[in-house]
Write a structure and sequence with these properties.
The complex is a heterodimer of chains A (149) and B (1191).
Chain A lengths: L1 E8 L4 E6 L4 H18 L9 E5 L2 E8 L2 E8 L4 H19 L5 H6 L1 H11 E2 L2 E2 L4 H8 L10
Antiparallel strand pairs in A: 1-2, 1-5, 3-4, 4-5, 6-7
Helix pairs in contact in A: 2-4, 4-5
Chain B lengths: L2 H5 L2 H4 L7 H5 L3 H11 L1 H7 L10 H23 L4 H4 L3 H5 L4 H13 L4 H15 L10 H10 L3 H16 L17 H7 L7 H16 L7 H11 L7 H18 L18 H19 L7 H9 L6 H17 L1 H8 L8 H5 L5 H15 L8 H13 L6 H11 L9 H13 L1 E2 L5 H4 L10 E2 H12 L5 H23 L22 H4 L5 H4 L4 H6 L4 H14 L6 H14 L7 H11 L6 H17 L4 H14 L6 H14 L1 H13 L26 H26 L10 H6 L3 H11 L1 H16 L2 H17 L4 H14 L3 H4 L18 H31 L5 H19 L16 H12 L10 H5 L2 H4 L14 H11 L2 H11 L23 H6 L7 H8 L7 H13 L17 H8 L1 H5 L5 H4 L29 H11 L5 E5 L18 E8 L2 E6 L9 E5 L3 E3 L1
Antiparallel strand pairs in B: 1-2, 3-4, 3-7, 4-5, 5-6
The chains are: A alpha+beta (149), B mainly alpha (1191).
């Protein structure tokens, strides 16, 4: 289960959050924890450099993409390596939606599109589409495999 | 709640959609804050309400929710009745927001009506829908407009958004913020609709309409429509699965689609949809297959249903890779429940050339992961024992996955082979896993499809272990942190399986054996044959020999571990933690652990380690102990490093529990060593200030700052207390079993002789006494107090000559006479010891008094007995009664100090036993009158009450005893924590506060304690009792978690305790907890000084953990936020900007202009104090930040 996908700015404010199967009273704890984690480790990180953390049976992979930090929390089959795959999909489709690594401002500009992308990537806590082109087609309400060439 | 994060998005929606959307919406968050700051200071306040201050307190959450509710009532009303908007918006903050939710909603209504116009569509796509996405949930009253758009609008992007929002309305569980949307919190729309009797729209009203619409679309077979059909189906799956009607409709749709398109006429060809593409029909078919299987994946499993299984199995042959992945995921889940049916249904797919073999080359990683799980489940299924052919087919696929290019897949295959699937597996399974890994070989099938892309070399049979080792070693050379972390985790799991194999005695298929005992086969790699060093070489450790004995399993392991150890150099602490866990698990009980010890010691000197991680490792020690009780002493030594190096960071409860369990687990032979290992901490030289500079010796205490010094202090106290409580157990010396009659001891009053006799009789106890005596002299006052108490405990419980020795010592301590002699021998801490010598006089007097009374009563008894004997008289009933009363009185007295078994304990000495027995039988007094004794009631009695001989044998440890130990320790949360850890539970977020948290005991779960030392049989129960390991039972995980959170030490809004050093008090209670609270609850009356709270330790670093290094780099407002919090010490004042009416008990009503003192800020609220009570008589409470201007 992909428990959470969170995107924050450097100041630790969350711009976007998707929780799955996390009780609402725990979400805040997660956010607090992740902000701390990011603040401790992401300083000076390279773009898209992957960081890993674990907490009991839960894995966390996080990274910096332009002006935002992306955190993915998963458990069970979504271990650190699977989360790496998810992270790759998310970063590449965000970059795709924004045209480049987004600044915070660009991210907010493309907020709606990014939400749709995430909607195609994660569906009820399970990874869905992984190919950039396919995601692009789907958010344009086109079929996943193109019928016309 | 989510208020904090939501406000940061304010700038996104503060742009008016109509007039100047582009310009305003592109203002970045920070600049927005500065511009609005000028307009209103209140707005800035809200702008950066950091999540960090947001606390886990229920109350505050409720309060916050209420505020949200209040705020949004008007919004929602406005949405429903646009005319009233302006009248209602009485709150000033509304005016600061050009685009409110209400306006967005209104725009949608308006634009939906004109959706055929290009401009409307553009508005929707670029401004309205993206901004609406920021909100947590969508108001059901939007549904009609969305449905209208759905039917009338042609624009694909608009439609895509429409499906997105319809899905969110369907997914909304009705309570605010619970859906996965995230963003700005929204109220409970249904509740609001109820309030508004006029035109409220609830979900109940709109959901059927949405479902109907989507169902119609999802069943539309028009080819041109099929992209929308896919999205409609997807949106439908968001409907809550509790709705049976919708669910059955969904099944119907999905099965309907699969019935039509499920059959795959031709074999799938890879790359069919590449540049050249296939024919349109098959592509549409494939798209529908994909949509149907994706939907099926989100539906609840239907294990008994053959149609369900059939369709899932069909999916493996589909062309769409995502569909194949979902199909495999479904099947692997089904296989856990019914492996036989699944194996039968898969039939020939697994055979060479079958669809499952194709999955091996499928590009989708998670699909191959599921394949590994599926193969593992089937190949180990009991129900398929009669079909070894099937099993071996799946096994061979599983082994082939070891060669997978993706680490994720390869590691999954390794874990499967090792017997790990979730955390419920039994020791036998794990042991069998180790056996498999070390014994099996991979033979690639001679499938023609493989021949072209596999080189000749890899097709040779390979021992699994060799493949795995090679793979792991190369993974450890990776630069990617996730890969390193995962590889270390695999090593840890390997260690677990190996430990299980050892525990079951499988190790004699020894690791010294050659990994390639298949050398009869002629197809070996040359490097495998060349060296065959005996395993003796590898035992000597070091890189050189790692290469030497390479082809033995042990040799391979040694060389792997060498690589693992070097990974400790990784800069990521989480990777390092995983490596250390791996090392702990791979540590064999018979090998030297010096290296591990020094690694841990040097690691712990690194201040970068977060407390949670250290505690995790400590818990790993618990788990390791459980797997191999033989390692008790080793583990204690390791735990000691934690105690001395990072006293401030570790959970003292968990550490003490480890001490305790290891002490019991060490068995009769190891007890002494175990006790030594714990209490050696008392012998270490005190920490030297500023000695942090790279000093990594194990035998040195580090406590660089006041906080950890204090923590160390507490640990020393705990160790002293532990020594006092357990010395008798470790030494197997009990007064009521003492063979020496008290008289003998009285005769050797010469102290030197006495000590000599004592140490020759029981060196363990003598050693413990020496330590305690030294602590009673040279520790800090807290330690001295506990040492004196511990000595009393030992005195009461021990027979002679120990009791007399302690008596003598306590006497000297109270008088201070001996101190002058002894203090030269010990380091003085420079404290003025006071006129009485030690300052312990007040405390010791009652203890001495009890011992005095016992001795004088013993004297009296001896005298009486002599006179009776001389006169040859029978004992009269009154005399017996008197004797019995003295016995009882002394027993009561003794019980005040420590627990003793009332039925057995004889304060008058062994000789009184007979007489007391006579009196009891005569008067029918049950020996167990002490049932009212809480110790008996709680089962502590069994602890020292060695009626069960089993306690002396380590392998058949008595449940009750273990149980009692756990109770005695009095730290149920620690037990729970360990329990939870062992069960692999825990999806809960960690506590960010670095302070050690003391959580109140919630419930006593003695299952763990009972099963702690049971090797295998109870393991299943163990897991069940904590009920948290299997993925299906997340519910129970959450319950245990929520109990966990009850006591989170987030700075509490409502706690009466101010910001004193949070951890010191609870742990003070804890360390002495059972001592004070259990049998000797009246102790306080005696030695009241000991109840003195330690001086409040107002830590200046209280918020240390909140420090955000990024603050400087980020925005200034964040920094100032920190300052606000930091300054909670010096009061801040403010003035109420508006009237505010309290909405709850914890809130405070305000009148405009009222002056208040701001105590602290939390989650958008100030906790303020008024100068004088308001009309409601309240002085202090919560008010919204925006309502107060800070002066």
């Amino acid at each position: 289960m992909l428990l959470a996908i969170l995107i924050s700015n450097f100041a630790g404010n969350f711009l976007l959050e998707r929780f799955n199967g996390v009780p609402s009273e725990e979400r805040l704890h997660w956010k607090t924890f992740l902000v701390k984690l990011g603040a401790d480790n992401l300083k000076g990180a390279r773009n898209e450099e992957l960081f890993v953390s674990s907490q009991k049976s839960v894995y966390i992979v996080y990274t910096v993409l332009g002006g935002v930090c992306i955190y993915i929390v998963g458990k069970d089959e979504y271990d650190e390596l699977a989360l790496t795959e998810v992270m790759f999909v998310i970063t590449s489709s965000i970059k795709d939606a924004c045209g480049k690594s987004p600044s915070e401002r660009l991210f907010l500009d493309k907020y709606g599109k990014i939400c749709l992308c995430l909607d195609e990537i994660v569906w009820k806590g399970i990874l869905e589409n992984t190919e950039k082109d396919r995601i692009k087609r789907l958010i344009g309400l086109k079929p996943p495999n193109p019928t016309e060439i | 709640m989510a208020d904090s994060s939501g406000t940061t998005l304010m700038d996104l929606i503060t742009a008016d959609p109509a007039p100047v959307p582009a310009a305003a919406s592109t203002v970045s968050s920070s600049s927005a804050s500065s511009t609005t700051a000028a307009a209103s200071p209140a707005a800035t306040q809200q702008q950066y309400v950091s999540t960090k201050t947001a606390l886990g307190e229920k109350k505050s959450k409720r309060a916050a929710l209420m505020q949200i509710q209040n705020d949004t009532i008007s919004v929602a009303k406005a949405a429903l009745n646009p005319v009233r908007t302006n009248i209602i918006s009485h709150q000033k903050q509304k005016q600061k927001k050009p685009v409110s939710y209400a306006q967005l909603a209104r725009s949608i209504h308006e634009l939906a009506a004109t959706s055929d116009q290009k401009s409307s569509q553009k508005q929707l796509v670029h401004h309205v829908f993206p901004k609406l996405a920021v909100y947590n949930s969508v108001d059901p009253s939007l549904a009609p407009s969305l449905l209208m758009l759905d039917q009338q609008c042609e624009d694909r992007t608009v439609l895509r958004y429409v499906y997105y929002y319809l899905a969110r309305i369907l997914a909304d569980t009705g309570s605010q913020g619970l859906n996965p949307g995230g963003g700005i919190p929204t109220p409970n729309w249904d509740a609001l609709a109820d309030i508004d009797a006029v035109g409220g729209v609830t979900r109940a009203d709109v959901v059927p309409r949405i479902v109907n619409q989507l169902t119609t679309e999802a069943t539309n077979t028009d080819v041109e429509f099929h992209a929308r059909r896919l999205q409609a189906l997807k949106a439908l799956t968001y409907a809550p699965s509790s709705n049976i009607e919708i669910l059955s409709r969904l099944y119907e749709i999905v099965f309907g689609i699969l019935d039509k398109v499920g059959d795959v006429p031709q074999k799938r060809k890879k790359g069919i949809f590449g540049a050249k593409g296939g024919d349109k029909e098959s592509i549409i078919r494939s798209n529908l297959q994909y949509a149907a299987l994706s939907a099926l994946r989100r539906l609840p499993l239907d294990p008994g249903n053959p149609a369900f299984l059939h369709h899932a199995v069909q999916g493996i042959s589909f062309a769409d890779p995502v569909a194949v992945r979902h199909s495999l995921e479904i099947i692997s889940e089904l296989a856990i429940r019914d492996p036989y049916a699944v194996a039968m249904a898969l039939g020939k797919l697994v055979a060479p050339g079958g669809a499952l073999q194709d999955v091996l080359h499928l590009h989708d990683v998670l699909a191959r992961v599921s394949l590994a799980r599926l193969c593992h489940t089937i190949s180990t299924a009991r129900s398929l024992d009669e079909r070894p052919d099937i099993k071996s087919q799946f096994n061979s696929v599983l082994y082939q996955l070891l060669l997978d290019p993706s680490e994720r897949v390869c590691f999954e295959a390794i874990l499967c082979i090792l017997g790990k699937h979730d955390n419920t597996e039994k020791t036998e399974e794990r042991a069998a896993g180790w056996y498999r890994l070390t014994r099996e070989i991979l033979k690639l099938p001679e499938a023609p499809s493989n021949s072209k892309d596999k080189s000749q070399k890899t097709r040779r049979p390979q021992p699994l272990i060799k493949l795995v080792m090679r793979r792991l070693e190369s993974s450890f050379r990776s630069f990617s942190r996730p890969v390193l972390h995962a590889a270390a985790r695999v090593v840890q799991e390997m260690g677990r399986s190996r430990a299980a194999a050892h525990a079951l005695g499988l190790q004699d298929l020894d690791e010294g054996a050659y990994g390639n005992k298949y050398d009869s086969m002629d197809s070996f790699d040359s490097d495998m044959n060349d060296s065959s060093h005996p395993e003796g070489i590898r035992r000597t450790t070091g890189v050189s020999n790692a290469a030497g004995g390479k082809d033995t399993i042990a040799g391979m392991l040694a060389s792997l571990m060498e690589v693992v150890r070097t990974t400790v150099a990784c800069e990521c602490v989480y990777v390092r933690a995983m490596v250390i866990k791996g090392l702990i698990w791979m540590q064999s009980p018979h090998e030297s652990f010096d290296e591990l010890k020094s690694i841990i010691a040097s690691e712990l000197s690194d201040p970068a380690w977060p407390a949670t991680l250290l505690n995790d490792i400590l818990l790993t020690l618990h788990a390791r102990f459980k797997a191999t009780p033989d390692m008790a002493v080793t583990l204690l030594e390791l735990a000691r490093i934690f105690a001395t190096k990072v006293p401030g960071k570790i959970d003292a409860d968990v550490l003490q529990l480890l001490w305790k369990t290891c002490l019991i687990g060490a068995g009769p032979d190891g007890k002494h060593t175990a006790l030594e290992a714990v209490t050696i901490v008392l012998d270490l030289p005190p920490p030297q200030p500023g000695s942090m500079s790279g000093f990594t010796s194990v035998d040195r205490v580090s406590a660089s700052d006041p906080k950890s010094a204090l923590a160390l202090q507490r640990l020393v106290q705990a160790a002293v207390w532990f020594l006092g409580e357990n010395a008798n157990y470790a030494a197997s010396e009990y007064a009521w079993e003492s063979a020496t009659p008290p008289g003998t001891a009285l005769m050797m009053l010469d102290a030197d002789k006495m000590v000599a006799a004592a140490s020759s009789r029981n060196p363990t106890l003598a050693g413990a006494l020496t330590r305690l005596q030294r602590c009673a002299f040279s520790g800090s006052w807290e330690v001295r107090i506990i040492a004196a108490q511990a000595l009393t405990t030992v005195a009461i419980r021990s027979g002679e000559p120990f009791r007399l020795q302690i008596y003598e010592f306590l006497h000297a301590l109270a008088q201070g006479g001996v101190q002058s002699q002894l203090s030269e021998m010990h380091l003085s801490n420079g404290e003025d010891q006071g006129a009485s010598g030690t300052g312990l006089g007040v405390l010791i007097t009652p203890m001495i008094k009890v011992l005095d009374e016992m001795y004088s009563a013993q004297d009296d008894l001896i005298k009486e007995m002599r006179s009776h004997d001389n006169a040859n008289k029978e004992w009269k009933d009154e005399e017996l009664k008197k004797l019995y009363e003295t016995h009882e009185r002394l027993l009561d007295l003794v019980s005040l100090f420590c627990y003793v078994p009332r039925a057995k304990y004889l304060p008058l000495g062994p000789i009184s036993a007979k007489l007391i027995d006579i009196y009891r039988t005569r008067h029918n007094i049950s020996a167990s009158t002490g049932l009212s004794d809480p110790a008996v009631a709680t089962g502590i009695s069994d602890l020292v009450y060695e009626s069960k001989p089993a306690t002396t044998e380590s392998d058949t440890l008595d449940d009750d005893l273990v149980n009692a130990w756990a109770v005695n320790l009095g730290d149920v949360p620690a037990v729970n924590r360990v329990n939870e850890f062992l069960a692999g539970a825990g999806t809960d977020a960690p506590d960010v506060d670095e302070n050690i948290v003391s959580r109140p005991s919630v419930s006593y779960d003695d299952m763990w304690a009972k099963t702690l030392l049971e090797s295998t049989e109870m393991e299943e129960d163990d897991v069940r009792s904590s009920g948290s390991s299997s993925p299906e039972s997340t519910g129970s995980v959450e319950t245990s978690i929520s109990s966990h959170f009850g006591g989170m030490n987030y700075p509490s809004l409502f706690s009466s305790r101010p910001t004193t050093y949070g951890a010191s008090q609870p742990s003070q209670e804890r360390s002495g907890g059972s001592r004070f609270n259990h049998p000797s609850s009246m102790h306080e009356g005696y030695g009241s000084p000991i109840r003195e709270e330690p001086p409040p330790y107002t830590s200046p670093e209280r918020y240390e953990s909140f420090e955000n290094p990024l603050a400087g780099r980020g925005s200034h407002s964040f920094e100032s936020k920190d300052d606000d919090r930091m300054s909670s010490g010096n009061p801040q004042f403010g003035t109420a900007l508006y009237d505010f009416t309290a909405g709850g008990d914890d809130e405070l009503s305000l009148t405009t202009g009222e002056e208040v003192e701001i105590e602290y800020e939390v989650d958008g609220w100030f906790y303020v104090k008024k100068k004088r009570p308001g009309r409601d008589g309240k002085m202090a409470g919560l008010v919204p930040v925006l309502y107060v201007s800070q002066s």
